[in-house]
Amino acid sequence: MFSRDALSYDPILLPDRCEISDSGMQNAAQAFYDKMRQRHTVRDYTDRAVPRTVIEACLRTAGTAPSGANHQPWHFAAISDPALKQRIRAEAEEEERRFYEGGAGDEWIKALEPIGTNAVKEHLTVAPWLIVVFAQRWGQFEDGTRYKNYYVPESVNIATGFLLAALHHAGLSTLTHTPNPMRFLNDALDRPASEKPTMIIAVGHPSETATVPAVAKLKKPLEEISSFF
To answer: Could you give the CA distance from residue 37 to residue 184 in angstroms, rounded to a whole number?
Structure first.
């Protein structure tokens, strides 16, 4: 973690060392894949409450992600307040209407047709939690002096992936939402200009009638997404 104090390299023996056999690795890798392939982007939620302690534990997992120079350039704003969720929905839908009314362009709209999305974002008020991810483009000391963060998009993206996996592992469903522009989130959540909102994650339990688009089950095979040398 970045500090104004002079820090020096102080190596310690690797903590939490994991010793596992080859067969154990294979079983663990397969079990994790089997769990993660059950993850689906969900747009239909119940209003069933999710304990704050569950969200906190998942955010702690996100906070363990690697980051450039260990600066951890992220902030996660977790929102359960109905009035604030309603404000975010109203402003997000305003941006989405512009998007679907021509701001996106025909090709993008065409690509979204199999997903079945539109400008109405009911999940933003029905899901019990929204988590807004912010990327800290630079940091500030208490006197206002700035310091640089490194590999910010890469670091925040990794931490967000950790968060999504943790939420799924906890039995929750999610939806990543990226209205454009998202500057209204800084005002709504009182975040500084140094932070750029990257997405809104709706978190909760799927409704009994929740559906997913059939195309969402089409995943590229290993041969298409990887190369071995």
So the answer is: 34
